[in-house]
């Protein structure tokens, strides 16, 4: 499951607060974007910088400049591996991915490859094109899996209780994403409330220093 786009926006552009059921990858190619994560911080994305936004994260995006245009690329995607999704959310999501990093380079390449595949509007929905995009996405997930294992703290010990809560959060996110009866605008706080834990504890379990 995936969908994406590339846009150039005018100075002063802003997009309303939103959250998604799936992971969102964004990368800025020109200008600066300010991404504000609710109850957290504002992240300044410059040319080549990227961000992976976790499912259920309320956020707003806006052009940092009131006059100059900005260009960004975006991809929304989902996949079935709960363990890898948990590690992406816990170790990579909702923070700046600097332009000089391997992850930013890999993320920029996947988005450029997909944009190039979709240039021909008459063929972008063809089966062959969709398969090519899925292959690119699978290769990206493989690279993410390799990168996650290299992160300092990947193998740090954690309590059984924290591991269980982490798995419960991941499974609940997956269930809600795939359940048409659940409001698609659910947030991370909603997930935590359903598990009878505070959002603060939920975020702590998913903190970047911990693998779950």
Automatic annotation (TrEMBL):
Keyword S-adenosyl-L-methionine set for record: no
Domain AraC-type arabinose-binding/dimerisation: 12-110
Superkingdom classification of source: Bacteria
GO biological process: regulation of DNA-templated transcription
Pfam families according to UniProt: AraC_binding
Keywords, alphabetical: DNA-binding
UniProt GO molecular function: DNA binding
InterPro entries referenced in this protein's UniProt entry, alphabetically: AraC-bd, HTH-like, RmlC-like_jellyroll
Residues spanning the membrane: none
Stated name of the protein: AraC family ligand binding domain-containing protein
Lineage, opening ranks: Bacteria, Bacillati, Bacillota, Bacilli, Lactobacillales
């Amino acid at each position: 499951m995936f969908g994406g786009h590339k846009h150039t926006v005018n100075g002063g552009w802003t997009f309303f607060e939103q959250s998604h059921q799936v992971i969102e990858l964004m990368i800025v190619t020109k200008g600066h974007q300010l991404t504000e994560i609710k109850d957290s911080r504002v992240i300044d994305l410059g040319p080549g910088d990227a961000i992976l936004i976790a499912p259920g994260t309320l956020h707003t995006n806006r052009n940092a400049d009131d006059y100059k245009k900005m260009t960004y690329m975006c991809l929304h995607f989902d996949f079935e591996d709960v363990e890898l999704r948990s590690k992406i959310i816990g170790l990579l999501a909702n923070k700046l991915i600097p332009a000089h990093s391997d992850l930013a380079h890999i993320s920029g390449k996947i988005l450029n490859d997909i944009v190039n595949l979709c240039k021909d509007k008459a063929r972008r929905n063809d089966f062959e094109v969709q398969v090519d995009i899925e292959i690119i996405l699978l290769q990206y997930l493989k690279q993410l899996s390799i990168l996650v294992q290299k992160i300092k703290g990947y193998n740090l010990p954690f309590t059984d209780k924290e591991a269980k809560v982490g798995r419960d959060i991941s499974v609940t996110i997956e269930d809600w994403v795939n359940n048409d009866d659940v409001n698609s605008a659910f947030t991370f706080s909603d997930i935590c409330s359903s598990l009878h834990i505070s959002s603060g504890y939920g975020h702590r379990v998913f903190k970047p220093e911990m693998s779950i």
